[in-house]
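pasting for ref
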Amino acid sequence: MKGANAIRERESTIRANPIREANFFAFVMQPPPLRLRTTSMASNDAPPPDNIHWSGVTDTGRFRKNNEDAFLALTFDAREVRYLGREGEGSMETADYVFAVSDGMGGAKAGEVASKIATEKITKLLPLSFTLEAARPEHESGFAEILEEIFLETHESLVELGRHYEECRGMGATLSLCWFTPGWMSFGHVGDSRIYYLPKDGPMRQVSEDHNRVGRMLKRGEINERQARSHPQKNILDQVLGGRTRKIDPQLGRVGCSPGDRFLICSDGLVDGMWDRRIDEMAREALSADRLVDYAVQESGRDNTTAMLIEVG
């Protein structure tokens, strides 16, 4: 097989059912060189987890009128894509699962256009990738090529719209996307939404990198979490999908996981209302994104707030 390029050579019938709160913004990237980072956390003795449970919710917050955050939950095999509800469980034995959170910029109308294009590209490409040998977990580059293809095609479509329609110019978004197969979580990320990994028997860690100067300072230990929260440049991003960013260098990677491990995908609105220690505590309790978002909105609520909480088992 030829990775993502082979996708275009195959055909498939896709059934997609709309779902409330399942739209998300996905914008742009220039084709970067693939930079893979693989983190294997799973025990060699434990069988790979094949069950998955999830919970997702988005909230406008206490001060904003529009919600430009959104999330996506879907499952797919070689035949079809199915959109999922806010909460549920399933098996990865015969299908893969994808969850995404995005924080959009540019207004509600721009977000509607972007979400429709992103959904079209994802539902077109992911089912075909299910049967590609390169997409299976033992082939590290396969998932990255496919994620890159999805982002690139979405980018090309949105760039064309921006050239021809004034209302589509300048719109952009963060995007954090997690693709689950038995024993692995593969991801693509741009912006300052976040992906956290909560192993059953280990400390929580942030898998994604904040694409701004403040995030780099925090990572290097030059400032602490409290200083990062109050930094005047914390909302100035180096790269977003779309907007006026010319060159995108998305973070691509994957994490090996064991039964009982959890993952949290969230927008910066959640981070604004919760310290990392509190996120770690609450995300290990009941599998409920609502509890996390409700707490963050009560503590802050200055921004739209979205969370997807996933457990493999």
